[in-house]
Amino acid sequence: MHLDNFFFIKRCSIFYIHDFEFENSESRNKYFLTLNCQYGDEDITFVLPTSQVDKYYYQNPINMRDVLVIEKGESKFFHKKTYIDLKNIDELSFEQLEEKYQQGDLVVEGTIEDVLLTKIENIIKNSELINKLDKDYYLCN
Question: Pick from 40, 94, 118, 136: most CB atoms within 10 A?
Protein backbone atom coordinates (compact mmCIF):
# COMPACT_ATOMS: atom_id res chain seq x y z
CA MET A 1 0.00 0.00 0.00
CA HIS A 2 1.39 3.42 -0.92
CA LEU A 3 1.48 6.46 1.30
CA ASP A 4 -0.30 8.56 -1.32
CA ASN A 5 -3.40 6.40 -0.85
CA PHE A 6 -3.91 8.02 2.53
CA PHE A 7 -5.32 11.44 3.30
CA PHE A 8 -3.29 12.17 6.44
CA ILE A 9 -0.54 14.30 4.91
CA LYS A 10 -2.23 17.57 5.48
CA ARG A 11 -1.48 20.93 6.97
CA CYS A 12 0.00 20.77 10.46
CA SER A 13 0.16 17.01 10.74
CA ILE A 14 2.52 15.70 13.39
CA PHE A 15 4.74 12.80 12.31
CA TYR A 16 7.24 10.79 14.28
CA ILE A 17 10.18 9.48 12.25
CA HIS A 18 12.57 6.84 13.52
CA ASP A 19 16.20 7.63 12.65
CA PHE A 20 15.58 11.02 11.03
CA GLU A 21 18.84 12.07 9.39
CA PHE A 22 19.98 15.64 9.96
CA GLU A 23 22.19 17.65 7.60
CA ASN A 24 25.23 16.86 9.77
CA SER A 25 24.57 13.11 9.22
CA GLU A 26 23.47 12.64 12.83
CA SER A 27 20.26 10.65 13.13
CA ARG A 28 17.74 10.18 15.91
CA ASN A 29 14.02 9.74 16.43
CA LYS A 30 12.25 13.02 15.78
CA TYR A 31 8.82 14.62 15.60
CA PHE A 32 8.09 16.98 12.76
CA LEU A 33 5.23 19.25 11.83
CA THR A 34 4.06 19.68 8.23
CA LEU A 35 3.17 23.10 6.85
CA ASN A 36 1.84 21.93 3.49
CA CYS A 37 -1.26 23.67 2.26
CA GLN A 38 -2.70 20.89 0.16
CA TYR A 39 -2.52 17.16 -0.18
CA GLY A 40 -0.37 15.95 -3.02
CA ASP A 41 2.46 18.49 -2.81
CA GLU A 42 5.63 16.86 -4.16
CA ASP A 43 7.74 18.17 -1.31
CA ILE A 44 6.72 18.14 2.32
CA THR A 45 7.32 21.50 3.99
CA PHE A 46 8.08 20.94 7.65
CA VAL A 47 9.61 22.28 10.84
CA LEU A 48 11.26 20.25 13.59
CA PRO A 49 10.03 20.92 17.12
CA THR A 50 12.67 20.69 19.84
CA SER A 51 12.42 20.03 23.54
CA GLN A 52 16.08 20.98 23.99
CA VAL A 53 15.04 24.38 25.33
CA ASP A 54 18.07 24.81 27.57
CA LYS A 55 20.51 25.03 24.66
CA TYR A 56 22.62 28.16 24.65
CA TYR A 57 21.14 29.26 21.30
CA TYR A 58 17.69 29.72 22.80
CA GLN A 59 19.03 31.55 25.86
CA ASN A 60 19.67 34.60 23.65
CA PRO A 61 16.37 36.53 23.32
CA ILE A 62 17.17 37.59 19.74
CA ASN A 63 17.13 33.91 18.71
CA MET A 64 13.62 33.53 20.09
CA ARG A 65 12.15 35.63 17.29
CA ASP A 66 9.79 33.50 15.22
CA VAL A 67 9.79 30.72 17.81
CA LEU A 68 6.55 29.28 19.13
CA VAL A 69 6.89 28.19 22.75
CA ILE A 70 4.61 25.31 23.65
CA GLU A 71 4.41 24.87 27.39
CA LYS A 72 4.14 21.44 28.99
CA GLY A 73 0.51 20.31 28.79
CA GLU A 74 -0.44 22.80 26.06
CA SER A 75 -0.40 20.10 23.36
CA LYS A 76 -1.23 16.41 23.45
CA PHE A 77 1.84 15.75 21.28
CA PHE A 78 4.55 17.44 23.33
CA HIS A 79 4.90 16.32 26.93
CA LYS A 80 7.52 18.87 27.91
CA LYS A 81 8.24 22.46 27.02
CA THR A 82 8.87 22.55 23.26
CA TYR A 83 10.03 25.17 20.78
CA ILE A 84 8.96 25.36 17.15
CA ASP A 85 11.52 27.57 15.46
CA LEU A 86 9.82 28.92 12.35
CA LYS A 87 13.12 30.32 11.07
CA ASN A 88 14.08 26.72 10.34
CA ILE A 89 11.43 25.57 7.89
CA ASP A 90 12.72 22.88 5.54
CA GLU A 91 11.52 20.46 2.85
CA LEU A 92 11.55 16.71 2.54
CA SER A 93 10.69 14.92 -0.68
CA PHE A 94 7.52 12.87 -0.76
CA GLU A 95 9.66 9.89 -1.85
CA GLN A 96 11.77 10.13 1.33
CA LEU A 97 8.65 10.23 3.44
CA GLU A 98 7.10 7.30 1.59
CA GLU A 99 10.31 5.29 2.01
CA LYS A 100 10.24 5.87 5.78
CA TYR A 101 6.58 4.82 5.81
CA GLN A 102 7.27 1.63 3.83
CA GLN A 103 10.10 0.76 6.24
CA GLY A 104 7.80 1.22 9.22
CA ASP A 105 9.85 4.19 10.42
CA LEU A 106 7.07 6.77 10.16
CA VAL A 107 4.20 7.15 12.59
CA VAL A 108 1.37 9.59 12.00
CA GLU A 109 0.44 11.16 15.34
CA GLY A 110 -2.38 13.49 14.24
CA THR A 111 -2.94 17.18 13.58
CA ILE A 112 -1.71 19.96 15.83
CA GLU A 113 -4.34 21.76 17.90
CA ASP A 114 -6.12 24.68 16.17
CA VAL A 115 -4.99 27.21 18.77
CA LEU A 116 -1.34 26.30 18.06
CA LEU A 117 -1.91 26.44 14.30
CA THR A 118 -3.27 29.97 14.72
CA LYS A 119 -0.18 30.92 16.74
CA ILE A 120 2.11 29.43 14.08
CA GLU A 121 0.32 31.35 11.32
CA ASN A 122 0.52 34.60 13.33
CA ILE A 123 4.26 34.17 13.88
CA ILE A 124 4.81 33.57 10.17
CA LYS A 125 2.56 36.50 9.22
CA ASN A 126 4.38 38.90 11.56
CA SER A 127 7.90 37.63 10.92
CA GLU A 128 10.57 40.11 9.91
CA LEU A 129 12.92 37.26 8.98
CA ILE A 130 10.77 35.26 6.54
CA ASN A 131 10.54 36.81 3.08
CA LYS A 132 7.18 37.72 1.55
CA LEU A 133 7.10 34.89 -1.03
CA ASP A 134 7.84 32.26 1.61
CA LYS A 135 5.27 33.79 3.96
CA ASP A 136 2.62 33.55 1.24
CA TYR A 137 3.57 29.94 0.57
CA TYR A 138 3.60 28.93 4.26
CA LEU A 139 0.28 30.73 4.85
CA CYS A 140 -1.38 29.16 1.79
CA ASN A 141 -2.00 32.52 0.09
Answer: 94
